[in-house]
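#struct-queue
[09:14] JT: dropping the first one here, sequence first, then the structure tokens:
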Amino acid sequence: MEARLLPGEIVVNEVNFVRKCIAAEKSHDDLWGKLICTNFKVSFITHDALTKPKCQVAHRLLGEHDIPLACLDQVVTVNDAKGKKKVLGSNQKLKFNPSELILYCKDFRIVRFSFDEAGPEGAKKVCLAIAHYSHPAEPQLLFGFEYIGTRFRESTDERRKGTLPKGSSQTPLFDCSSDWDREIKRTNAEEWRVCSINQGYAVSPSLPEFFVVPASLADQDLRQYAVFFTDKRIPVWCWNHPNGSALIRMANIPDLLQQKRLDQRICNAIIKSHPQRSEVHKSDLDKSLPSIQDIQNSLVKIRQICVIDPFEESEEKWLSSVENSQWLDYVGTFLKYSCEVVYLLEGLNASVILQEEEDRDLNCVVSSLVQIMLDPHFRTLSGFQSLVQKEWVMAGHRFLDRCNHLKKNDKEESPLFLLFLDCVWQLMNQYPSAFEFTETYLAVLSDSMWIPAFSTFLFNCPKHHVDTMAAFLEDKNITLGEGEVLCFPPVWEWSQQLSIKDQALFNNPIYVGKGARYVHNGAVKSFRRTKHKTYSSTLRGTPPGLARNGLQGLHQGGTLPRRNSLAAQLRSDLFQVRDVAESPSERFFRDWFSGPADPQQGLLLPQLLPSHLPLWRLYFLRWVPEACIPRGGSITAYHKFSQLADEIETLQSQLRRYKGPTPASTPLASPAGPQSEPSRMYFKASSLYEPSSTPDFLSSTFPFTPVGNLCRPNLHGTPISKFLNGAKIWLSTETLSNEPL
């Protein structure tokens, strides 16, 4: 059997008679086959006949046993006879014949191959090839460039008009002025305008060519101001609240004298853009939030805890280790800080400037979370994708450096986008009907960072994208036709990865949207909810006592902190209230949590007690066999809701095919009526004759499979399995094998 290759993909090296280790103690369960290294992935082609599950998600770019080279974190070779291990890099020599290969992946997988039956020279060559091709020297050596070279071309007219080829994603890319115009109109930001002074990246190398600024600021003034900002990143608009307040982001002004002068002019322009001329608050994120290095160190710890370290003594130690990693503290801290910004925008009707040294990291997280909390549009699938495109890709987040695709500078690596997705999952976990998409979508989106076939996660900014594409065309001597450009597809073109059926896993069956339809007396109507009350700085008081989540004074660390909690140590510069009486911000949060939440009418606030912020198990523990719950986990609820939603959709479709009741009260079918509409649900409604129990193939890791992706002994009865099943007391002293590097 040969590897399935994509356009532009070539086999670099391969070796036969390789054993993929499934269980560390029972080798008879292992798979035998061929290990292949291409310029895109590590592929294992098994010779064993495997029983395929009835329901399996098929990736269009990757097989079940494939790993993209960009996903590899460490390539470790082992020689059991000599007791040696070596972490391989690019262009390195290997002085011993490897008996094993261990691949540590950025998505938390650990995959092990044994070469005890393979030729020693072949094993050595394939290991060196994997190490070399997983360390590309330049961005254009990433596989995505070979992949798009002969596949994705479009006319300059389509690009200029912002239209996409037929079948492409309809997500706005914000690379043209029309996308920004539509966003201005959608948010009713009448006093803001699209600015084009950065066309050709003439002003700032890291800002997009088009962005939005106050209408009262002239282009000439903006050009003069730009030289004083770090990387010339002047203040740009993110979003407008219905009350007129605006969210703005900008870089620092190193010169203190110029800072005072420019702050006044910029704030005056923002005030003029507000219908009520409300004040402007500026927030320095560098002083209030953890650094990108802190966040990276935390991820390293949580990876060690979840997939590498053994459970030595008790589950309490494991849980305290998760706590001490500070990952959940950082998640809570960013959510808390975003809540404070929400209060200023919604509660005080004030505009907010988010300031960061380069405006390309922490600002991306906070600005995105604030908009998700305030605007239901960004809780839809298309809205969320437009938010990522607007606040991350076009805003110049350094995806190439932060993902460390070239593996050149570990100090620049930081999982800010994963942290953001975890924060979104926490909101989704607390308000499951408020989001149109699912946690499977978030996990697949995160995994897509390691598939270098999409433009979304490969570049540091739009200009870097343009320059790298030009260098690729020159190096490959590719000549485009007249009016053609080479188009690197964004990740939002999900049909590149998944079938329409598998994309249905992204749809939340219990989502309640403004446009949800129902049928009443044969007529299709829209589901509407009562409008949620708005707030001002003069909020009514609430009875004493804790709010539902204990949010008593967000700015004063009022939430119950974890032990050694970072959130308890941080003091935001957003609030300066020191009165003994309840502050307006406290009343704002108390008042919101004391009433019923309506997630489709604007504001959505997270609960921030430690008990409300669990570990995102589908992402962090999906490859751990011990954490897998057969026929359990959140997928079981999703399965039932999906079937119910499909049944409701089917009944609605049937009702729409009737004109209405006849005099005999019997509905007549309309001959010209539409046929049954395809369901948006992955799991279809079962008939009366089919069992309604959870299928055997479902587990808490669905649609991901842990088999063969993490080698450990003693897969049953381990401490974590008991923890996940709700045990109170643990007596097991079993430990899991450690994999020191």
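[09:21] JT: and here's the second one, same format:
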Amino acid sequence: MPAIVSKFLSDAVDTYERRGKNVEVISKTLLTTAVLAYVVKISYPHIKRKIKDKKPSINGSCVNYNNNNNTINKYGKNSKSEKEKIEDIKEVKELSLFARALRQPGLNLQFVLQLRKLIEIMIPSLVCYETGLLSVHTLCLISRTFLSIYVAAMEGAIVKYIVRKDVKNFVYMLLKWFGIAIPATFINSMIRYLENKLALAFRTRLVNHAYKQYFTNQTYYKVSNLDGRIENADHRLTDDITTFSSSVAHLYSHLTKPCFDLMLIGLSLAHSSYKMKANIVNGPLIGFFVITTTAHIMRIASPRFGQLACEEANRNGYLRHIHSRIITNAEEIAFYGGHKVEHIQLSEAYHRLCRQMNRIFSQKLWFVMLEQFFMKYVWSGTGMIMVSLPILTTSHLSSDEDQKSNTGSKVSQRTEYFTTASNLLKSGADAVERLMSSYKEIVELAGYTSRVSEMFQVFEEVSQGIYKKTTVDDETATEGILEFKNGQPVANGKIFYDTENMSITLKNVPVVTPNCDIVVPNLTLTIRPGMHLLITGPNGCGKSSLFRILSGLWPIYNGELHLPKTCEDKPCMFYIPQRPYMSIGSLREQIIYPDSLDDMIAKNVTEEKLREILKMVALEHIAIRDSFDEVRDWKDTLSGGEKQRMAIARLFYHKPQYALLDECTSAVSIDVESSIYETAKNMGITLLTITHRPTLWKFHTNILKFDGMGGWIFEPLNENEH
């Protein structure tokens, strides 16, 4: 194929020449076209951005984007066509992207402050394991620089003895060459080893810190349900921390060794030039001027790799999030036959990632071309000038002097100097190249630093009860019930833990969803021990929401909540949902969850006691079939009714003061269900039950009715009422 193309071009050129045209015109035309294409490539994004900045708003509507709270308020016509609405949505998306671009990471003060906080986590003190690794790593980097200088001098000496035909010294230097190879290769291997160890140590510190924040004050729940800043915490906890740790460890050696190389190699070159009795200032000045000029040009022409890397990580995390959703809801998707919709969403997420990666590839294409032109050719030519200056400008080694005496000795000295200086300059050029290319890595590191730092900040704020999420209700619609600050609702409610009074009391507490939907504007009631409460009402009236408020999952935006203080030996409240959670572990760990084996031993609970508990919920056959040490995937091993009864077994094991039962026996037979409720009452557990089964009314003393419109009734339960 290349031969065919070459022949075709040759015939075209011959035809062009026969018509009296000059081939040079073709070359100039092609060169001009290439230059114009490159200029258009560079200037087009800037021109496009300027046009977008000057673009007026559509249909005179006003779109206000608040950067602090991520909420969007639109005020326009009351009635709009579908086309206008779509255009407004596009306008809002463009403004959202513009606001996100303003917050994109880069090499700035914010990056320095974020990196400083993360370094304080990775290196907590001056005397720690990570400091020791850094010290040994730095020592290896310095040793490698000295070895490079020593090897360069040995190469020059070897070449000198070859030119002199001195076999004895040549063999001696060759043996030294092989001898120095052993520590040199060991140092190189140690540098890679310590870099990996350092990355793992940094990752361990960050992971421990992240896990501590993630499991404090139920942050793992609140960050995904009450806060909208992090969509894929799993990706940030795994891939982003790993990439950031590896980048920091690699960047340390990538920056430190070139600095040592430049400093020591510069001194060695100056010493060699001094031995040649040449000027030691001209060469470094030329090199400094060329390097600073090209570095400035490359910095201006460099794309925003930090923003590109951050956006790539965002899209990669979103793709992983879609995959995890499909895995989690595989059964529901299969029942609905929704594979086409999921396939479309997954493909769109992947294509968005591909478009971002292609954008990065195209940006790197031109930048790497410019980078290689300066580093491989401009710097190499500058290095040749720097090496040749001591030879061309010195007078005591002129060719006339060589002809008078010791011509061979002088030539060998020049050869030794040239070989040593060339090797040192190659090492120096490689060091400068690594420093220049490290700018791109630093900017990319800024993207990962921003994501990891933002994750820690969100975890900390969520743990303190500070949430930021897009709200669906206007502030005026909740006037008098919710207080807003910077577009976000403020949790003004108070929680009190009583040590003596074991009652649950709500005083003027509104039931509000995380999206600021007010389900119940005002709820006041008191539940005392032994007051078994039945909660009824239509779907979406606030039954499960009340349990989330009592469990501390949702914030209290107003009023007061009085709860009994949790005892050490047993919890105050124990929540059982309709779909119980089966943990990873043995059969014993399913019963005692969330206790550990040590907690069970501390409570003096034996396996015989566990067998009695299983018998209470009609699951003794599982203990007969499997031992308590049997480890299985209990989520798939147990049926729906068995999983609900296993959750009740946990209730009987922990014996809390209050049990929050949310349709937890819907898959259990009526006779077993009645036995379970009777046993729970005999244990002294106060029941708060959400159910639609009339057969359970007889086990309760009071009823709380929600009407679905914000109203409620709390009254004693009539035994004859069904």
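[09:30] RK: nice, looked through the second one.
[09:31] RK: DSSP finds 22 helices and 16 strands in the chain.
[09:31] JT: good to know. The longest helix spans residues 407-463.
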